[in-house]
Amino acid sequence: MLLKQDLRCRARPGRLRGMSTCQPVTAVEEQIPIIITRDQGEAAMAVLVALTLQRDAEVGLQNASLVEARKHDEAIAGFSARMQRWERALEKWAHDRRKFLGLAGEPGEKKSLELRQGTLGFRWGNRKVQLLEGFTEETVMQRLRGLVKKAKRWKVYIRVKEDLDKRQVLDDTRPEVALLSKADLTRLGLSIGRDENFYIEPKLEQAAV
């Protein structure tokens, strides 16, 4: 993938035709350079190294800006803490005086109070399942399991998730374990393989000298 106008290039004497020095820009174009010969491969790597160094320089400038921006963290945290205290104070005031302030509406009714510099109120969230006091999910599951034995209609409220344990398959096919043979895998419709991943390791230290 080339960066559009990514390579503002000037051909250099002695270089392969079509290869050049480049400066990065931002727009993306779906086009990949064609490399055929070893010399073209060497030149392409040189372009990649140059772009990598320029990118890293920009990242360094960005990081310096972030360090500068972090100097404001303490002030921002201080303002946020003070905001939270006043938000809690307003929430407690609204809770304690709901009826007096006209905020004690029924579900679905508007429950807000217009102040000179803002609005506060209560709004209903989405429906959710809640545990009764003294119950845990495990105690609820125990009750459900007991009810399922009496009537199958309760079974729909128990979720069972099954999936292939690939990690266990890998462990059991290791030579020192050998609990799953190749025949076992074939029977299951599986095999053990590896992906071959292409890599590039630019020699940035040499290029920077």
If you had to describe this structure to a student in words, what would you say it looks like?
The chain is mainly alpha-helical. Among the domains are: 2-70, no CATH class; 97-128, no CATH class. Helix content is 43%, strand content 6%. The protein contains six helices and four strands, in the order E-E-H-H-E-E-H-H-H-H. It has helices spanning 38-69, 73-96, 137-150, 166-172, 182-188, 204-208; strands at residues 2-3, 28-29, 112-115, 118-121. The strands form two sheets. Strands 1-2 form a two-stranded antiparallel ribbon. The protein has a two-stranded antiparallel sheet with strand order 3-4. A hairpin with a 2-residue loop joins strand 3 and strand 4.
Structural class: mainly alpha
Q: How many β strands by DSSP?
A: 4
DSSP helical segment count: 6
Note the run of SSEs as H and E: EEHHEEHHHH
Q: Mean pLDDT, as a whole number?
A: 83
What is the terminal separation in angstroms? 28 Å
Stretches with pLDDT under 50, minimum 5 residues: 1-25
Shape call = flat
| Relative helix content | 40-55%
Largest sheet: 2 strands, antiparallel
Strand composition percent: 5-15%
Radius of gyration: 33 Å
Side by side, the strands of the main sheet go 1-2
